[in-house]
Design a protein that fits this description.
Number of strands: 7
Distance between the termini: 56 Å
Helix content: under 10%
Structural class: mainly beta
Length: about 170
């Protein structure tokens, strides 16, 4: 409910425990070696908007959440072992706007609405970055200049030229 206007907001589609359990994979021993943990989650094409449940799965290293409607990545800050992140075709407007350890290496963010790359500088170990088909990425060189990215894709959309119809 939007208290300011007295409006009822539609509930955001959250990543559920059932979807997490269905998508978990890659079993391994945790870093301490005392327990077996899942390190991969695949939950694609489920219209997911909200991912706060991921804070309960700190051992995840590989996350595939492509083709959803995710806008907020703060929950990923609770995944210190995250190595691979696929958030292609979501509704992101900024890149990797969350704090995590320096483990993140491969990031796929194609086909979002990303305009802001400011937070990229805090992820120093990214070696693969796909930002293809995002909206008007401006000043790409500044935040990426500090990183040693070995493979990056920056396919920018060209602005369509307007055609005027001449009336004779």
């Amino acid at each position: 409910i939007n208290a300011e206007y007295g409006e009822i907001q539609p509930a955001r589609m959250a990543l559920t425990k059932g979807a997490v359990l269905k998508g978990l994979g890659r079993i391994t021993k945790c870093a301490q070696g005392s327990q077996i943990v899942y390190t991969e989650l695949v939950a694609e094409e489920q219209e997911i908007e909200e991912i706060s449940i991921l804070t309960k799965y700190p051992h995840l290293a590989h996350l595939q959440l492509a083709r959803n409607k995710i806008t907020d990545l703060r929950a990923l800050g609770s995944l210190p072992n995250l190595l691979t992140l696929d958030l292609s075709e979501n509704c992101l407007t900024s890149v990797l706007d969350f704090t995590t350890s320096n483990n993140l290496q491969r990031v796929y963010l194609a086909r979002n609405q990303i305009r802001d790359l400011t937070a990229l500088a805090q992820h120093a170990h990214i070696s693969t970055l796909d930002l293809s088909y995002n909206l008007s990425l401006i000043h790409i060189s500044e935040p990426t200049r500090l990183l040693s990215i070995s493979y990056a894709v920056f396919c920018l959309k060209k602005k369509k030229k307007r055609v005027r119809n001449a009336i004779s």
